[in-house]
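We were asked to recover a plausible sequence for a given structure. The inputs and outputs are reproduced exactly as logged, with field labels preserved.

PROBLEM: sequence recovery
POSITIONS: 127
GIVEN STRUCTURE:
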């Protein structure tokens, strides 16, 4: 499949596609904010990767970027019809709470494109 990158702004967040190799494994993902600073690394995706059997369908990451707190944003790993969360600088309990919230949002909306926006808005509002 080779590497592929996609980056766009979604409700104050950046959507970053994971590059995926032939085996469905993730290459090291990185993102850069508007100032060119690195804001996302392999250690962000790894906690959920270890718990997931379906990362071959990984689609993207929503990362909150807000001033000096850009390294502490919540990260969403989107794949297929599910959304799993890992938290930068947070516990797995925090990540699990965001995961459950994302699933609720998906079940309510039922549309992947709307899910991206809804998740971004819910995180921006601190819900």
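RECOVERED SEQUENCE:
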């Amino acid at each position: 499949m080779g590497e592929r990158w996609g980056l766009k702004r979604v409700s104050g967040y950046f959507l970053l596609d994971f590059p995926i190799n032939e085996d469905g494994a993730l290459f090291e993902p990185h993102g850069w904010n508007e100032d060119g600073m690195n804001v996302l690394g392999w250690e962000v995706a790894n906690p959920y990767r270890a718990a997931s059997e379906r990362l071959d369908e990984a689609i993207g990451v929503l990362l909150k970027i807000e001033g000096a707190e850009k390294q502490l944003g919540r990260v969403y790993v989107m794949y297929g019809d599910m959304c799993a969360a890992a938290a930068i600088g947070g516990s797995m309990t925090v990540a699990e709470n965001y995961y459950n919230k994302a699933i609720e949002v998906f079940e309510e909306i039922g549309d992947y494109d709307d899910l991206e926006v809804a998740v971004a808005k819910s995180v921006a509002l601190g819900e």
